[in-house]
Design brief:
This protein is α/β, with parallel strands linked by helices. It contains 10 helices and 19 strands. Strands 3, 6, 7, 10, 11, 18 and 19 form a 7-stranded mixed sheet that branches. The chain has a 6-stranded parallel sheet with strand order 14-13-12-15-16-17, sandwiched between helices. A two-stranded antiparallel sheet has the order 1-2.
Length: 339
């Protein structure tokens, strides 16, 4: 439970029996996300602030313990990935099919609304049965807890169009950038180049399929060859949220290239003349919808292997240690809590 910046506590809370259409899941794995780290380090991000004690966590998986009346998609003992999104289903965006833009979205572990939407870093969580997605028998709980961030990247890729045969650049190799790399490879990209400012994630990127992984801090001119003849890359997944990363990559984009801005940061100053002259398409991407079930399917079939990205699993009682490790980019890509 986060109470304020750097005030993270393990507390007893009552288990809640499932009502009609609900399930209670014993959570076994929970991935620490960038937003969780912002709540821990700063008490929030942007204008969002923790105003009451809130359970963190939205990258979670576990086993169904109880089901309420009317539940047919799972039963006690079913192993599931938990979709943290619960759109209202009746606002104008839900009715348009854009449920991830829901005006009344309940998203686990989020202080964007008040009272806050409590999260899933707990031993037992009760929620709508539709949010419980069964996983393959061979999938570990650690893998299943990657479903949410992988869904984010699959949604980002949907904005990039077909990736078959494309030359792709990924900037920023946190968990989201790394998963964008895996999605680009799965999509048939001919070449994937990755950049970051830390050596450890670059080494992991090479392991999971980057043709080249560049420390842009140590080699600031490394993208220069890709700027020749009005640029090389067809698609950029910008996953750092850093202005320098985006601006530094734009000159290597070919005319008509697509930039998918995945990472969140502050406001940026962009070279509009370059974007206009090269007809570069800048596209935002936010959360996910149907991609969550697709993420579970792709991991379950072995089409996308996220296991190399899991750096460490830490018992939830040592949550403070886990959060410190998750912020250490010299040692970790993704850190998960075990319940």
């Amino acid at each position: 439970v986060i109470h304020a910046a750097k005030d993270l506590r393990v507390e007893e809370v009552p288990a809640i029996s499932p009502g009609p259409g609900e399930v209670r899941v014993g959570i076994q794995a929970g991935g620490i996300c960038g937003s969780d780290m912002h709540y821990y380090s700063h008490g929030g991000f942007g204008t969002v602030r923790v105003k009451q004690p809130m359970v963190l966590g939205h990258e979670i998986a576990g086993t169904v313990l109880e089901v309420g009346s009317g539940v047919t998609n799972v039963k006690p003992g079913t192993r599931v990935a938990v979709n943290p999104s619960r759109p209202c289903g009746h606002c104008k965006y839900c009715l348009e099919g854009n449920r991830h833009q829901c005006l009344e979205m309940h998203f686990m572990g989020s202080a964007m609304r008040f009272p806050h939407a409590q999260g899933g870093f707990r031993q037992s969580l009760t929620f709508a049965a539709a949010q419980a997605i069964p996983i393959a028998d061979g999938m570990t709980m650690g893998e299943a807890a990657f479903a949410e961030p992988l869904a984010v990247c699959l949604h980002a890729a949907s904005h990039a169009g077909p990736l078959q045969g494309k030359r792709v650049l990924v900037t920023g190799l946190g968990p989201i950038g790394m998963l964008c790399l895996l999605v680009a490879r799965h999509g048939g990209a001919a070449e994937v180049i990755a950049t970051d400012v830390a050596d450890y994630p670059l080494s992991v990127a090479r392991q999971v399929g980057a043709n080249s992984a560049i420390n842009i801090l140590a080699e600031p001119d490394a993208l220069t060859p890709y700027k020749a003849d009005k640029g090389t890359f067809d698609v950029l997944f910008e996953a750092s949220g850093n202005e320098a990363a985006l601006v530094g990559a734009l000159e290597s984009m070919r005319p008509g290239g697509i930039v998918v801005q995945v990472g969140l940061g502050g406001d940026m100053k962009l070279p509009i003349n370059l974007i206009v002259a090269r007809e570069i398409q800048l596209r935002g991407t936010f959360r996910f919808d149907r991609e969550f079930a697709l993420a579970v399917e792709l991991m379950g079939s072995g089409a996308i292997d996220v296991k190399p990205l899991l750096s460490r699993t830490v018992p939830f009682q040592n949550a403070t240690e886990a959060f410190a490790l998750a912020q250490d980019r010299s040692k970790a890509v993704k850190v998960q809590l075990a319940f």
